[in-house]
UniProtKB/TrEMBL annotation:
Keywords: Signal. Residues 1-18 form the signal peptide. NCBIfam families: NosD_copper_fam (TIGR04247), para_beta_helix (TIGR03804). This is Copper ABC transporter NosDFY, periplasmic copper-binding protein NosD. The keyword Signal applies. Residues 28-182 form the Carbohydrate-binding/sugar hydrolysis domain.
Amino acid sequence: MLKLLIFTLFLSFTFLKANLLQETIDKAKEGSILKLSKGVYKGSILINKPLTIIGKEEGVIIDGEGEGTVVTIKSPYVTLKNLTIQGSGDKHENIDSGIKISDSKQSEISNCIIRDSLFGIDISTTNNSIFSNNYITSKKLDLGLRGDGVRLWYSNDNIITKNKLVKSRDMVVWYSHGNEISENFGEYNRYSLHFMYAGKNFVRNNTYQYNSVGIFFMYSKDTIATGNVVKSSLGTTGMGIGLKDVSNFTLKKNTVIYNAIGIYIDRSPFEPDTNNWIEENQILYNSEGIHFHSLSENNIIKGNYISGNIEDVVNDSRGARTYQNEIVGNYWDSYEGFDKNRDNIGDTPHKIYQYADQLWVYNPTVKFFYGSPVISLLNFLAKLAPFSEPIFLLQDEKPKLKKQGFNYDKKEQ
């Protein structure tokens, strides 16, 4: 009886440690479809051939047991669906991930839950693939120590859609072009979407909230961002949408609301004889609606709805040349002119000045007192009787008097 018990325990221990899923993958022919039943399968899986793995039901878990990357894909034409991937290692230098895919094309990862994994999906040198409807969260670490939820690296012409990233670090798109990033949701991350050296990407209808930064574009060009909602970016420097050294960008019909900075423009457009188009956006209830930093001219800022911000425009450097942007046809709730002929265009331009008394422009710590009666009084007195000549920032030649086109409240519903 004792010998039988010992033998049974030995078989159970061997079954738990054996990587039966990897053995099945190794034996499968190219193009096979593996349908997994509910259960926990040992991770550290390598897929190096065209293959499909589908969870037949809920509760199909591939567990990395806290070591390395859970699923590694090094092949084109690979599909993963309806799986829970969990338990990667915690080494940043190895980019320990739930799923790591490289040297691939026409692959798909969809309807997966990726949790307790340092990095979520690490995508490199992968083209023409789909990543959709995945839920991704990192390990329970401080924000800066988490890995990126989705990481694109030298990967082009992919579709990343309807994913949900929560309590991860960033979603990064680096050296990657022609990707569509649409209808994703990001919450409690650092950068919900961060581009660097990337071009011709299409960013539409994403929702990002309670992150440090919503969308930030750096050293990039030829990208369109439209229909995105970025709200409640956290901290005194929380940012909705940022542009740094970018050219030939279009920001259209986005909503940035309840952020410290709505739209941040730093040395953009960067390339000579180019423009950026910032049109028909809603810039609402931010501490700063539009913030200029460094030389930023030749932006076309047109048809936006700018309302409820503590400061509509801030320029933190004397060399930004904000007045050399084309600014026309925006609605400003701070406009004090008239429309005698009722054509919905103000009879006089809307001019914005920066007063020397506005200490918070050059002293970020004063931002803590935004909205307080004391600051409101100082702001009123500075405009009523400035101690020095104010700095002219910009003017809208044809300010609109009525909001037109689209409605944030309806979009929220």
